[in-house]
Amino acid sequence: MDVVYAVDTAQIPTEACGVVLVNKGEHWAADDPVVKAAPTLFSTDARYGMRYSAEPPGYNDPPVEQATAAPGEKRSVRRG
Fold first, then answer.
1. What is the pTM of this model?
2. CA atoms within 13 A on the CB side of 16
3. Which of 7, 33, 59, 80 has the largest count of CB atoms under 10 Å?
């Protein structure tokens, strides 16, 4: 069974169960109707399922984009 983790707390309206409260960090089956109703609320990143007493460094940091090409990687460039 695939598992996803709630990245935030929210109330999700569903046809089958009415409104469901999802708490940040809860793990859910990836094919659950609640997950399908709000797929952007869930992630496969396991750090969202952690419990902690103090927020770990980088827990809420957005992903970092790579600014330069890696060795051997080609980037598309438009020249005017």
1. 0.65
2. 6
3. 7
